[in-house]
Amino acid sequence: MKKITLITLLILLIDQASKIYVKTHFYLGESVDVFPGFKLTFVENPGMAYGFHFGGLLGKYLLVIIRIFLIGGMVYLFRKWLKEGRTTNFLLIPMAMIFAGAIGNLIDGMFYGMIFDSGTVYDEELGRWIDYGGISNLVPFGKGYSAFMKGCVVDMLHFPLVDTQIGNTRIEFFKYIFNVADSAITIGVALLLIFRKKAFPNGLDF
Q1: For residue range 125-164, what is the model confidence (pLDDT) as tens digits?
Q2: Which residues lie below 8 Å from residue 153, measured CB to CB, with a gap of 6+?
Q3: Residue 72 CA, distance from chain mean position
Q4: Where are the alpha helices (DSSP H) in the chain?
Q5: What residues are annotated to the active site?
Q6: How far apart are alpha carbons 129 and 119 in whole angstroms?
């Protein structure tokens, strides 16, 4: 359990520190070149990894609930596996990465609206999410721009490996902007797929 806790806390620390830094130092939409093929580009999204989202506030609430159930289910699995003596790193490390990533993005959605003075909000009359200007600041808990479960996920990692203009067409690869939590989930899933026979020697016996 110590291994799971350590990995989870480390990823959460890096994830939240990077998000808070970007949100309090970057204008929404601002992009800074770090080196060729890598930028820090600040965007907010109300949905899932890599900017995907669905619906308005109802879709956002549903996503938060799904994340809570996912995290609860993983806690159950960790306890079950440890009780059974299934302590292989091929299973626990990737699962801990996925666990930390899910918690990281859940924190944004649940609490960022309550601890920052500005952020992307949903306009029910227009039926869409509205951006904001300026740079956000941290405020006392509960004094933020929005309410519980109405915050947006902060994304900033941008790897446009190809970014060129051909005629009137802009070609960009990889255009998605994501965060440390998204990365942890993606890498964790990839490791489970690569080492699935060692992680699940008896098959997917959850």
Answers
A1: 887 888 898 999 999 999 999 999 888 999 999 998 766 6
A2: 44, 45, 46, 47, 105, 108, 109, 112, 179
A3: 17
A4: 2-25, 57-83, 89-115, 180-194, 196-199
A5: 155, 182
A6: 10
- Identify the DSSP state of 36: T
The secondary element (H helix, E strand) that includes residue 129 is strand 128-130
* E strand or H helix that includes residue 31: strand 31-35
Q: Is 15 exposed, middle or buried (0-12, 13-18, 19+ CB in 10 A)?
A: buried
Q: Tell me whether strands 121-123 and 128-130 are parallel, antiparallel or unpaired.
A: antiparallel
Question: In this structure, how many other beta carbons lie within 10 angstroms of the beta carbon of residue 45?
Answer: 22
Q: Are 67 and 100 in contact (CB under 8 A)?
A: no
Locate the domains of the chain by residue range.
1-199
3-state secondary structure of 46: coil
pTM metric for this prediction: 0.86
